[in-house]
Amino acid sequence: MTHALPPLPRIPAHVVALDDYADLSREHMSEGARAWLDGGAADELTLKDNSAAFARLKLKPRVLQGMQGGHTELSLFGQRFAYPILLAPVAHQRAVHPDGELATLLGASAMGAGMVVSTQASVALEDLAQAAHAPLWFQLYMLADRARTSALLARVEAAGYQALVLTVDAPVTGVRNREQRSGFVMPDTATAVNLDAGAPAHIARPGESPLFGSPLVAAAPSWRELEWLRAQTRLPILLKGILSSDDAAQALGCGVDGIIVSNHGGRVLDGVPASIDALPGVVKAVDGAVPILLDGGIRRGTDVLKALALGAQAVLVGRPYMHALASAGPAGVAHVLHMLRTELEMAMILSGCRTLADIDQRILWQ
Questions:
Q1: How confident is the model at residue 198 (pLDDT cuts 50, 70, 90)?
Q2: pTM for this one?
Q3: Which of 61, 115, 118, 295 is most buried, judging by how many CB atoms fall within 10 Å of its CB?
């Protein structure tokens, strides 16, 4: 299938860091859309701490280290990546750009970066798979109806996706006050096209439990459903949303292939640790059994380096590429990836790390 895209916009010369796109996106997004994308849960303590926690970590530079033959290549689940930065799953991308996930994919493919496609994508998963020229993973929410989940899995496998990312930290949505105050309503053009309409929203009557009596909570998946999923697919399964070392250990017992340490971008439960602060405990519990990735708060190449030093094999970035998508389409997404990769390589060289294998806690200032 051929997709015609508009001419690529010119990226302003002053956009030289990821946060510059956050500022630029104000000219291209409504206030409501920004509240939806940028907002977190409740008082947004965790949202803010996701980035602040990286600032608390200091690097210990090393000098006069030979850098000949240096590179950032890695392998995950039999797939080769040029560098350890993937695009995180973000739903409803046509809310910020008319071509949505397809535009994001074009930027990712141009830079050879892996992309994780959301269950709630606004472009058909098959159309994205046909256009991909880089590793493509699929983020899955376990649906209450197993038959619907099985049908979705069959489509994902038939389309050629290479891994499943099961989000486990959001059986209910967070208290997103910033989004509520804005009155934002998702536009019809950003519908989750890979899902049917599903059940209507539950509205509790006066005096009833607002959540514990809802069908959504009654059907929330458990570890038993994870074991069922493991039996349904040949794809590697990563759990996204693990902060607890106990959950990480239990996940290993269920046969998962990877773990993504994440607090959902601070959008679900406020007051939990920053992802980077939770990473060392999960790394210790897993003890090298499966790859660990980190999601949340990545804004600089030095952040990537710090995550790798604490035991992550790769990181995912979300909001920054959405700001770039809104501002400059595929070119903006590619630019975000290029800036992060460039900053990572600079940080590696200045820290004396020739390859990813050289990165460990010794490069952190104790």
A1: low
A2: 0.93
A3: 295
